[in-house]
Design goal:
The protein is α/β, with parallel strands linked by helices. It has helices spanning 9-22, 52-55, 89-107, 110-118, 144-153, 180-185, 206-209, 229-237, 259-262, 278-293, and strands spanning 2-6, 27-30, 40-45, 61-64, 82-84, 134-138, 157-162, 172-175, 189-192, 216-220, 241-246, 266-268.
């Protein structure tokens, strides 16, 4: 029985002694070296090798080394293979920090002040209470829920939208397509933390932006594929949105000369909102293998029928 890692040199260097200590009976291989492919039961990768069923006919669990699984072609992964996304605590902490920074920066006019500095303008605005800002998070999963809880502690009026209803004290939950319009109408700062699926691809569009209060702010930490870029530019240029903070784009990086680079109301960051810490990620995968070996639920296992 063996484990194959297809990832960075840093992960390989850190994980190999961890696996040797915690799972000494499990042979550890670093792709492209995989030992006897018949013995491979576990694979960790961002994108697995092609022809997975042929390369590893006895594979049982595929671990994503990132929080998302939209980079995976689930249709090419055998149905009997369990798929688990990374749920390392550092991913959550990083996302909370990033979204809190973006919301506070918008609330306290920091993006506007940065533009004014470039124009050599010294002009302050009145400070407004956080309780006057309504923050809506699309996606109430492992990242969205803790983000909402932290924002609520700062006094923001918080609510979330997802495909199913959630019970979180002090935070209103909207569920399903039939409640999306009501969610949007009550949102001044919209945060996208959804997984990218066929149902959510292109959801951040003109149709959605028009249902937000005029002058709303968009923060996209989900995936670049959620956003229709031309519709965002329309919304900003027409005042329907006043600000956008994008940590993800499609493609990444954007090509030279792309209009998102230089738009004055867009702040771009290079997909750094949250990332797994190498050592902690290894600990999480070891824990999940132990859970699996003992017929217990694995943390982060996805529902293959929904893709998350």
């Amino acid at each position: 029985m063996s484990f194959v890692l297809k990832s960075t040199e840093e992960r390989a260097r850190l994980w190999k002694p961890m696996f040797a200590s915690e799972l000494p009976e499990l042979a550890f291989h670093v792709w492209p070296e995989a030992g006897n492919p018949q013995k491979v039961r576990y694979l960790a990768a961002w994108q697995p090798p092609e022809n997975l069923a042929e390369n590893f006919p006895n594979l049982e669990v595929l671990f994503s080394v990132g929080a998302g699984v939209d980079q995976l072609n689930l249709a090419s992964i055998p149905e009997n293979v369990r798929v688990v996304r990374m749920m390392e605590p550092g991913l959550t902490e990083g996302m909370i920090e990033y979204v809190l920074w973006a919301v506070l920066s918008y609330h306290r006019n920091m993006f506007q002040y940065a533009r004014q500095q470039g124009a050599h303008v010294w002009k302050g605005a009145p400070n407004v209470s956080s309780s006057l800002f309504r923050v809506g998070v699309m996606g109430m999963g492992a990242l969205g829920t803790p983000v909402l809880k932290k924002l609520s502690q700062f006094g923001y009026v918080c609510h979330g939208w997802s495909r199913s209803r959630h019970d979180i004290p002090g935070i209103k939950s909207y569920a399903g397509p039939e409640e999306l319009d009501a969610f949007l109408a009550a949102t001044d700062i919209l945060v996208c933390l959804m997984p990218l699926t066929e149902a959510t691809k292109g959801i951040l569009s003109r149709k959605l932006f028009e249902k937000l209060p005029k002058g709303a702010c968009l923060i996209n930490c989900g995936r670049g594929g959620h956003l229709v870029q031309d519709d965002l530019l329309w919304a900003l240029d027409n005042g329907q949105l006043s600000q956008a903070v994008l940590d993800v784009t499609d493609p990444e990086p954007l090509p030279e000369g792309h209009p998102l680079w230089d738009h004055p109301s867009i702040v771009l960051t290079p997909h750094i909102a949250s990332s797994s810490r190498a050592a902690a990620g290894g600990e999480m995968i070891i824990k999940n293998i132990m859970q699996y070996e003992n017929a217990l639920n694995m943390i982060g296992e996805i529902d293959r029928s929904f893709g998350y």
